[in-house]
Specification:
The protein is an all-alpha fold. It contains 16 helices and no strands. It has 2 domains: 131 residues, Ankyrin repeat-containing domain (Serine Threonine Protein Phosphatase 5, Tetratricopeptide repeat, Alpha Horseshoe); 98 residues, Alpha Horseshoe (Serine Threonine Protein Phosphatase 5, Tetratricopeptide repeat). Helix 5 packs parallel to helix 7, helix 13 runs antiparallel to helix 14 and helix 15 packs antiparallel against helix 16.
Length: 229
């Protein structure tokens, strides 16, 4: 079982393939050597290009694509593909190259991954290339990209994703973006969601309303916003 806090911290340094292989463990390779990542473990995950992209060497990436490495693959468990990896790393050059070579702009939910670091310009590039905010949704229909932006407290991305079709009222109860903003104490995000039409007439699985959650946590500013003051 991965330790999520440690995983998140290391994933932010995913430019090093050794970390990517070590932490994800999704490819099935043993150890953390760059050589194993370079070989790609194609038989295990079928997605060696993710690891090659993580190394950040354009020559290696181009060679792998020319050899026929799968460009629209996704790593098990993590759900990230080559394009999403490049976007997550902030590598516009690799993103643009992969798109020219046929990368599907929705495979691996790149808009969710760029929300981790609040990469607004990268998100706009992906959207222009055809990335859909609702490429992946929760069981309740909540855009995972929008939820990530809310959880990361990035108002600019939240607004962008709503404009691009993210539904602020999808889910409901435990699964809606307003609840995520309320329980985290993000008044700027709550204000934005309310302005974009987020409903407050729901209760979570504990029977708590948005106002209850804010009151219980002592979030007076959010409580005032929810009451329309």
């Amino acid at each position: 079982m991965l330790n999520r806090k440690r995983h998140t911290r290391l994933w932010a340094c995913a430019g090093a393939v050794s970390l990517c292989v070590c932490v994800l463990g999704a490819c099935g390779c043993m150890g953390c050597g760059g050589d194993s990542a370079r070989r790609g473990c194609e038989g295990s995950s079928g997605c060696s290009l993710v690891f090659i992209v993580a190394r950040g060497e354009m020559t290696d990436i181009a060679e792998a694509v020319d050899r026929g490495s799968k460009i629209n693959c996704v790593l098990p468990r993590m759900g990230i593909g080559p394009l999403a990896m490049a976007a997550r790393m902030g590598r516009r050059d690799i993103v643009e190259y992969l798109l020219t070579r046929g990368a599907d702009p929705n495979v691996g939910d790149p808009l969710r991954w760029v929300a981790v670091d609040g990469q607004v310009d990268m998100a706009k590039l992906l959207i222009a290339a055809g990335s859909d905010v609702n490429a992946r949704v929760s069981r309740g229909g909540v855009s995972l990209a929008l939820m990530e932006a809310v959880q990361r407290r990035n108002a600019e991305l939240v607004a962008l994703y709503i404009e691009e079709g993210g539904n602020v009222n999808a889910g409901g109860g435990d699964d809606c973006v307003l609840r995520a903003a309320v329980v985290r104490g993000y008044p700027n995000i709550v204000r934005l969601l309310l302005a974009r039409g987020a409903r407050t007439d729901w209760r979570d699985s504990d029977g708590k309303s948005a106002e209850d959650l804010a009151r219980d946590r002592g979030f007076d500013e959010i409580l005032s916003l929810l009451r329309g003051n």
